Amino acid sequence: MKYISTRGAAPELSFEQAMLTGLARDGGLYLPESVPSLSHAQIAAMAGQSYEEIAFTVMKPFIGDTFTDAEFKTLIAQAYAGFGHDARAPLKQLAPNHFLLELFHGPTLAFKDFAMQLIGQLFQASLGRSGERVTIVGATSGDTGSAAIEAFRGLSNVDVFILFPHGRVSEVQRRQMTTAADANVHALAVDGDFDTCQGLLKDMFNDFEFRDRVRLAGVNSINWARVLAQVVYYFSSAVSLGAPHRKVSFTVPTGNFGDIFAGYIARQMGLPIEKLVIATNQNDILHRCLTTGVYQTDKVHPSISPSMDIQVSSNFERALFDAYGREGAAVAQVMDELKSTGAFTVSQGALQALREVFTSGRVSEAETSASIKTTLAQSAELLCPHSAVGTAVAVDHLGATPMITLATAHPAKFPDAVEAATGIRPALPPRMADLFEREERVTRMTGDLAALQALILERTGA
Ligand SMILES: *Cc1c(COP(=O)(O)O)cnc(C)c1O
């Protein structure tokens, strides 16, 4: 299986190379040359299987011969062993035909753990046999950073630097990033917002001399291996509601478009998904784009669902690549336009292609709080604000097809917003109860690229 860039001008890579690289050298994102499909019988056979068994079947065709079957099975088993729920991604019912997929039973209580725990294992296995060392730099609006630190801390072949927007993450998120005692972990609080952090990251990837010197590796959702790991729970949940014999739809609280893009891949692989509903908070660039055809950046408006507070939605580029008939040059052109003018118009044909699969909705802050409150009253479920954005949008899209809304984080990760909406302060699971007593370790940074690169060189000795 070969991986190609969405901008058509970077070398083709193997799965392992694409995983260790992250962003392509032409600025694009890697995608498989063609998406393998699973047969009706293969999907039907998943009924009753464990999460790990389904994970193997779904991901195996994408990884080629990177790992033997036995190795890959072991890595999958180790990735999910630390989860606090045997089903890994349990499905609950909220209302007739509306279901909630709980993706917050991993070590940092957000869906990011599904991908990050797995790629921590895959990196370790791959670097372990080559003896190479890499520097992982990640930008986070909160959850990616904590998940990455939890997955990579203490590993011998990896330094991990996490950039997060100072003052814009919840206290639980911050503490999950700043309290790891391992010497290979570096939490960096940057003056600015998530887009500042993501911009710095992209600039470092585009500085080839620096990139090669520190052997930069990216674990943001631009990393294909992360998207791939998330495809699995679309299968496990849909099968438990009767797929492939019955269709399902999904509503996905969306920021960088990585999670919902995994649903798009599941659909391409043959999972009968009717609609993928993009749920956004007041940072609604994707909703506006799907509605009007214009992708127009705006300022980030901080919200109670901070992991979705972004304007440049990186993985949307992958959907655009398909919508533009897989013409890298066309994608490169709209991305250049975005960079120079802050906006571009999606062509009629591409917009139509996107609308065949995706639909969207947007909720305000008040509606998010109301959704937390009514879901507790009507379904006895305490939702985090991101999941509440999802359920609020999903309610407008319920119909004959079962709807699965993704619950992307545990309510205890965002206790202030949950308490404000319901009067109930959600408690951390017992395995994390000492988080507020642990010592914090963090470096404050401006948004200056040169200073950041100097710090990384110094800390890694590269
Ligand atoms: C990352 C995150 C999202 C957004 O996911 P994307 O893949 O960036 O679209 C939503 N909710 C939570 C809790 C997250 O951590």
UniProtKB/TrEMBL annotation:
One of the record's GO molecular function terms: threonine synthase activity
Similarity section: Belongs to the threonine synthase family.
Cofactor: pyridoxal 5'-phosphate
PROSITE patterns from the UniProt entry: DEHYDRATASE_SER_THR
A single GO BP: threonine biosynthetic process
Protein name: Threonine synthase
Domain Threonine synthase N-terminal: 2-80
Positions carrying N6-(pyridoxal phosphate)lysine: K112
Organism from which the protein derives: Pararhodobacter oceanensis
InterPro entries in the cross-refs: Ser/Thr_deHydtase_PyrdxlP-BS, Thr_synth_N, Thr_synth_N_sf, Thr_synthase-like, Threonine_Synthase, TrpB-like_PALP, TrpB-like_PALP_sf
Enzymatic class: lyase
NCBIfam families: thrC
Record's catalysed reaction(s): O-phospho-L-homoserine + H2O = L-threonine + phosphate
TM stretches of this protein: none
EC number of the protein: 4.2.3.1
Residue ranges of every copy of the Tryptophan synthase beta chain-like PALP domain listed in the record: 101-332
Keywords: Amino-acid biosynthesis, Lyase, Pyridoxal phosphate, Threonine biosynthesis
Pathway: Amino-acid biosynthesis; L-threonine biosynthesis; L-threonine from L-aspartate: step 5/5
